[in-house]
Amino acid sequence: MTQFNRFAVAAVAVAGMLGGIASASAQDVVRIGTEGAYPPFNFTDSNGELKGFDIDIAQALCDEMDVTCEFVAQDWDGIIPALLANRYDAIIASMSITEERMEIVDFTDKYYQTPARFIMRDGSDISDTSPDALAGMTIGAQSATIHANFLEDIYADSDIRLYPTQDEANLDLAAGRIDLILADSIVLYEWLETDDGSCCTFVGDAYSDPDYFGFGAGIALRQEDDELRERFNAALAAIIENGTWQDINDDYFPFSIY
Amino acid sequence: MGELFGLLAFGAEGWGDELAAGAWLTVRLALTTLPFGLLLGLCIALAKESENTYLRAIGNTYTTVFRGLPELLTLFVIYNMVQLLANRIVQFVAPGSSFEISGFAAGVVALGVVFGAFSSEVFLGAIRAIPKGQGEAGRSLGLTAVQTFRLITMPQLWRLALPGLGNLWLVLIKDTSLVSVIALNDLLRQTQVAVGVTKEPFFFYLIACLIYLGFTLISTVGTNALEKRANRGFAMR
Amino acid sequence: MTDQSITSLARIAPQKAPPARGPFGLEKKVFDQIVLAIVLVGLAAWIIPNINWRFVDRYWLRYLEGILVTFQLVFLSVGIGALLSLPIALARLSKRKWLTLPARAYITFFRGTPLLAQLFLLYYGAGQFNAAFEAAGLWWFFREPFYVAVLTFTFNTAAYQAEIMRGAIQSLPAGQAEAASALGISRWPTFFKVVLPQAYIVALRPLGNELILMIKGSAIASIVTVLDLMGITSLAYARSFNFQAFFWAALLYLIAVEAVRRIWDRLERHLTRHLALSH
């Protein structure tokens, strides 16, 4: 076989592979994009499986709609672009329903709502979390979140550090690279309860201004997918009605987060 | 220390199997990108060597752009654009149907586009290193341009381009780590997941580095062997 | 008679080929320029109406700040890396095993692993041992993502530059050093005055490539919260969901790389102007 033919064969092989990987999506499968790095809402365990409140809710919704859920893990930064690019059909990843995001995606009704809070290391000399009091301090948050936007806009005199994942922000707070973190109170609570989180503690009040923190976590969909949105809304209402939602809530939290 | 290595166990508790799966994806990603990137690079090189001004301009623009952009940026944009583009084409050809490009395929395309830009330069150098007289001799013997390329240029191209391509292959293996930033569960991303759970960044990132190092060392041995084979019949000067 | 005609033939100067003809009876060159102009105008007509000026207005200053950070990252690490690379290259070339082995290990590790993995290793690895760094009085340095990024890039580029310098030094004929030694010049002056200047001339081109590779590679710093050009881009995109964020970043990176490439070409031509074969 000549070199040229080898190239031709390689080309055909690649074309075949790409074609083989690509396939038309079936009707009764709903592909769900999630982050898998946001415990307790969605995370990856040491078996490489996606777990968490979001995943359980998604599973319950799919059961209710009588479709098969197919989960796709996607980094948070690219989670909306990948939805728009049709890599999956819905985002169930604790995404807050905000005006900014509603300009490019649609949301279902909320499936839970929790406020945001600051945490700091134990013994830090911080009691007031107003922008003036935190001027000059280093505050971490996950990038592309409501928390990041809030800090960028309101805490302009602080040094804001934005991390691809919440885990990385936590690591840096524990290490002392940053003075505070602003994030979802439940996510922070979960971490503070672990050994690594024992370094740190809540400070200041809870934040839930809808201008920044939106109207709770919803399922994000492409704007043209009205039908899917309605099906999700109906399923959501049904699992709240029949107690499934409460059961999942109780698996994770000692109080209701609706 | 023993505790740390316990984290590498295969099975439910350890991360060994996840890291191995990630490493396997890294290898598959690089190996799948290679033929695609080589073909693209060869086409671009031929375009740049072409008599046609426009082909040359296209080839040069392509190289300037994709050699000048950070791989991270290129990967992110192409990864997201490929699917949008595929959607548009499918909607144009057959409205209403959909065509899904997996994350893996999108990663291959993104890495291949970058690899193509760099390998085209290697091919170009190799093509130019072959004395022009050889091609002219081929033509004067009555071979067509395609035959000349296939029978005279191509067999020598391989040998001349191999050292450069070997380097690019090493770059490709390392560049696959950038897809972890996008979405694929490659070695580095699996490592990040393990770090997220175990809070042992130094240990796990060191292990990841050593696995990559293993890949590059094996590759170096492999490319050296290939070079030796390609150079057989050429006396060492 | 025949002699006469031959000399008169020889006296006719070689004529230039007539300009190539393109379509529409235009000269090929002119036609190509028209096509180029049409393509550029078309591109502009497509892009300019699609520019979101609100986006530009909101972020242009931050993009410039980002470029500045990118250049700081690159020039600091490539500069310090250049200083480091020389002893590493010399150790690598040494005949003593205890010098060669560590140099080889260093070069192999930093060239054989991805920059991103190295950055994670140093950044989050240092964070894990912050108490030890604090005790050593080094934490102020490892606390800052910018410093850790510069350190990682420096280690990385030093390994690549060491290999470039090794190749350049080895490429010089041994006779050069031998001649210097025959003239009674001792080892180090020979190295600094005879070998090194020539090695740098040989290394100029690959060093320029390394500089450009670092400009592109530095985008990785954004992943550990450094707000370089790529960091600003992610930030602007996360906020606006406007793909334009990437368009501007691409444009700025291309301009930066092209500018550096041209300046480097100039420099190279200037430094090699005494070499007959430089053109």
Shape of chain C: flat
Give the overall pLDDT of chain C as a whole number: 89
What is the third-level CATH name, the topology of chain C? MetI-like fold
Proportion of strand residues of chain C: under 5%
- In round numbers, the mean pLDDT of chain B is 88
CATH class group of chain B: Mainly Alpha
Architecture of chain B in CATH? Orthogonal Bundle
* Overall strand count of chain B: 0
Q: For this entry, what is the oligomeric state of its chains?
A: heterotrimer
Give the C-alpha Rg of chain C. 27 Å
Total separate domains of chain B: 1
Distinctive features:
heterotrimer; A: 258 residues; D-Maltodextrin-Binding Protein, domain 2; 2 domains; 5-stranded mixed beta sheet; 13 strands; C: mainly alpha; MetI-like fold; 12 helices
SSE topology sketch:
The complex is a heterotrimer of chains A (258), B (237) and C (279).
Chain A: H1 3-21, E1 29-34, E2 37-38, E3 42-44, E4 50-51, H2 53-65, E5 68-73, H3 79-84, E6 90-96, H4 99-102, E7 106-112, E8 116-121, E9 138-142, H5 146-154, E10 159-163, H6 166-175, E11 180-184, H7 185-192, E12 200-207, H8 210-213, E13 217-221, H9 226-241, H10 244-252
Parallel strand pairs in A: 1-5, 1-6, 9-10, 9-11
Antiparallel strand pairs in A: 2-3, 3-4, 6-13, 7-13, 8-11, 8-12
Helix pairs in contact in A: 2-9, 2-10
Chain B: H1 2-6, H2 16-49, H3 53-68, H4 71-93, H5 103-129, H6 132-140, H7 145-175, H8 187-198, H9 201-230
Helix pairs in contact in B: 2-3, 2-5, 2-8, 3-5, 4-5, 5-7, 6-7, 7-9, 8-9
Chain C: H1 2-11, H2 28-47, H3 53-93, H4 97-112, H5 115-128, H6 130-135, H7 139-143, H8 145-171, H9 174-182, H10 187-217, H11 229-240, H12 244-271
Helix pairs in contact in C: 3-4, 3-8, 3-10, 3-11, 4-8, 5-8, 8-10, 9-10, 10-12, 11-12
